[in-house]
Design a protein that fits this description.
Number of domains: 2
Order of helices and strands: HEHEHHHHHHHEEHHEHEE
Bound molecules: S-adenosylmethionine
Shape: globular
Low-confidence stretches: 344-360
Number of strands: 7
Number of helices: 12
Largest sheet: 7 strands, mixed
Distance between the termini: 28 Å
CATH superfamily of the largest domain: Vaccinia Virus protein VP39
Structural class: alpha/beta
Mean pLDDT: 91
CATH topology of the largest domain: Rossmann fold
Helix content: 25-40%
CATH class of the largest domain: Alpha Beta
Strand content: 5-15%
Length: 373
């Protein structure tokens, strides 16, 4: 199997913003490139940052993505937009004209240390403009681009993020971050927000020659409601389901993204909720919920559809991931056809390596099943 995306002219858009536990683009791309035929629909019911949707786009295939996290939905939507750097920059300028002063700026020590005052005001204006209207492709592209630029390392020579020194993949815990900045006397510095937008718009949208087709849906993939919102032609026609459910024990998707969630309209503080997320109380309960997803997914699939998913666990939870896989497929209409260790084919880029700093991931497996429902 062609296990790389080498030879592809441009895949920059996939990196518009990092996401926890994203899988490498080569995983869905290689499967779809080798086996999918023209016009076949692709689905990812836990789409995260939309890696599968982007792989489908690169191959000219229409796709649907589902995720219950607003951050995941915003990032995935950007993987399907058709726009240009000029339009994205124009969208930012338009918003800054529409919102000359922010209605609301979060206050407190964290915010004073996290962003320069002027930078925070511009970020708030962009946030308010996008919350009021994020309908066009250019605005959706801008929103994801801003989520990717919101927090990250300061960089030695050039500023490419809006924040003070931070991780880029997950948001800082406020108390910890303030102590860190104070100890090192790291004060937030002014950055050129529009300049960063221009550069990122060029990087992510400048060379993109493919067209996005399909839809990203915000919803709970265990529940029927979200499947009723499928785009015309997709329901009953899904041929490929390429996904990775949350790993057992990995349940901090929302709190770890609290700053991006704030940008999308959430509260200016860590959100400890788990709304719409798979519960992780025991391996049996976890498997039962994934099972519900496989059953729902089967209902929108064409006969003979293929399900491929990458799965693992984290070391701090004692559970056998393969047992969870077997239980999750039992009696669903999906027949397990192959288990393949994910191995180290993508050394250094495996999903495991993107998992939380303290919880190392266990071995990962790629699971193949066929819809015989
Ligand atoms: C392992 S990540 C997927 C990462 C994705 N493969 C990528 O490359 O970005 C699992 C995703 O499942 C989502 N999720 C968890 N429970 C869900 C549910 N009940 N319905 C829909 N999405 C859910 C999480 O928000 C998270 O984005």
């Amino acid at each position: 199997m062609d296990n790389t995306t080498e030879g592809l002219a441009h895949t920059a858009l996939n990196g518009i913003a990092p996401y926890f536990t994203m899988f490498p683009l080569s995983f869905p791309y290689a499967i779809l490139k080798e086996r999918a035929r023209e016009g076949e629909w692709v689905l990812d019911p836990f789409c995260g940052r939309g890696t599968t949707n982007y792989a489908a786009r690169l191959l000219g295939l229409p796709s649907v993505g589902i995720d219950s996290s607003p951050v995941a939905v915003a990032l995935s939507e950007a993987k399907l937009v058709n726009t240009t750097p000029e339009r994205v920059i124009r969208a930012a300028e338009e918003i800054l004209e529409e919102v000359p002063v922010p209605a609301e700026v979060p206050e407190g020590e964290f915010w004073e240390w996290a962003f320069d005052t002027e930078v925070l005001a511009v970020v708030c204006r962009l946030r308010e403009g996008l919350l009021a209207n994020c309908r066009s492709h250019a605005r959706k592209a801008l929103r994801a681009l801003l989520l990717g630029a919101l927090h990250g390392p300061r960089g030695k020579t050039k500023r490419t993020y809006f924040s003070n020194q931070c991780q880029r993949t997950y948001a800082p815990k406020p108390n910890y971050a303030v102590t860190f900045w104070k100890r090192r006397d790291l004060r937030p510095e002014p950055v050129d927000v529009l300049g960063i937008i221009r550069e990122r718009a060029d990087r992510y949208f400048g060379g993109e020659r493919t067209r996005g087709r399909g839809k990203i849906l915000r919803g709970d993939s265990r529940e029927e409601a979200v499947y009723r919102r499928f785009p015309a032609g997709a329901s009953g026609a899904i041929r490929w389901v390429v996904t990775s459910p949350p790993y057992y024990g990995m349940n901090t998707y929302l709190p770890d993204q609290w700053l991006r969630l704030w940008f999308l309209g959430g509260a200016p503080e860590v959100a400890y909720g788990a709304e719409g997320q798979i519960r992780h109380s025991s391996p049996g309960e976890f498997a039962a919920q994934i099972r519900r997803v496989w059953m729902r997914v089967g209902q929108v699939c064409a006969p003979g559809a293929q399900l491929v998913f990458r799965f693992g666990g984290i070391r701090s939870r004692k559970a056998d991931p393969l047992e969870i896989v077997r239980l999750s497929l039992e009696g669903t209409g999906w027949r397990l056809t192959e288990l393949r260790p994910a191995g180290t084919a993508d050394a250094g880029r495996r999903q495991a390596l993107h998992i939380a700093r303290t919880d190392r991931a266990k071995e990962e497996t790629d699971v193949f099943a066929r819809w015989e429902g």
